[in-house]
Inverse folding.
């Protein structure tokens, strides 16, 4: 199943071309918009998912694939491309390699993040990048009582707290001063956002720990997962985060060292700097 992003130029045309190429090469393929929830649900019958777009498309396809233990191959039509290592001019060669079985799989840890009110879970999300608890539109810090495995850790007085996977360590957590973790590591990363006279260093936890963050605020707070959903949080409500039972599996055509090479290149010049143009 090939997922294209409807807002990415040429992604639909490429999806059509790739579908014909795979069928001509002896495989079978279909294509769909990544925004089509019904088609994403039907994709469980596929052996592999292909994501045409940027890191956001790869995240959405990665979550979809994780629910059915399906690997995801990404073709980079975006700007940054931390998660995607196949470039548009390489896709024919790479698809032939895939059809021959000439690739390896990279497993990425996910998080299970729950919105909790008075001890009851209101809703939960499977997260590939990060769960974020942050202030809303009022420019004042919030207080975040944070515990690990039921033991109090600290109270952050900050704009927010990022709870990230190793995959998310190169996203918002990196911008907030967090470390870069190896992609296949199994850790939970805590990174405060603009902390004021409170614990400011990032903390790396083992994957088997449970993090619970209780919000104390007189104004608005927000809970967001992978930048896709935003839920208002009221005073005394909490977010509980643990390792997910799902794992995202990415198809890789390059050696593991490619991640660090690509990271260094992106650090030297940010491809998203001119996004508004």
């Amino acid at each position: 199943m090939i997922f294209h992003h409807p807002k990415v130029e040429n992604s639909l045309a490429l999806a059509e071309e790739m579908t014909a190429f795979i069928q001509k090469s002896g495989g079978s393929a279909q294509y769909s918009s990544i925004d089509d929830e019904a088609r994403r649900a039907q994709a469980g019958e596929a052996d592999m998912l292909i994501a045409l777009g940027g890191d956001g498309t790869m995240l959405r396809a990665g979550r979809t694939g994780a629910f059915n233990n399906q690997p995801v191959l990404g073709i980079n039509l975006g700007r940054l491309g931390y998660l995607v290592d196949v470039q548009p001019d390489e896709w024919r060669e790479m698809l032939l390699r895939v059809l021959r079985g000439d690739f390896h799989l990279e497993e990425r840890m996910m998080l299970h993040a729950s919105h909790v009110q008075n001890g009851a879970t209101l809703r939960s999300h499977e997260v590939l990048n990060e769960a974020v608890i942050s202030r809303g539109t009022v420019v004042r810090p919030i207080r975040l009582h944070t515990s690990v495995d039921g033991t109090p850790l600290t109270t952050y007085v900050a704009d927010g707290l990022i709870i990230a996977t190793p995959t998310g360590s190169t996203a918002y957590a990196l911008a907030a001063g967090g470390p870069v973790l190896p992609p296949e590591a199994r850790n939970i990363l805590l990174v405060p956002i603009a902390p004021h006279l409170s614990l400011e260093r990032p903390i790396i936890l083992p994957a088997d720990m449970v993090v619970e963050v209780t919000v104390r605020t007189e104004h608005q707070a927000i809970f967001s997962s992978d930048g896709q959903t935003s839920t208002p949080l009221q005073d005394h409500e909490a977010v509980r985060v643990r390792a997910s039972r799902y794992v995202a599996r990415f198809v890789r055509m390059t050696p593991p060292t490619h991640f660090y090479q690509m990271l260094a290149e992106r650090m030297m010049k940010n491809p998203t700097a001119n996004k508004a143009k």
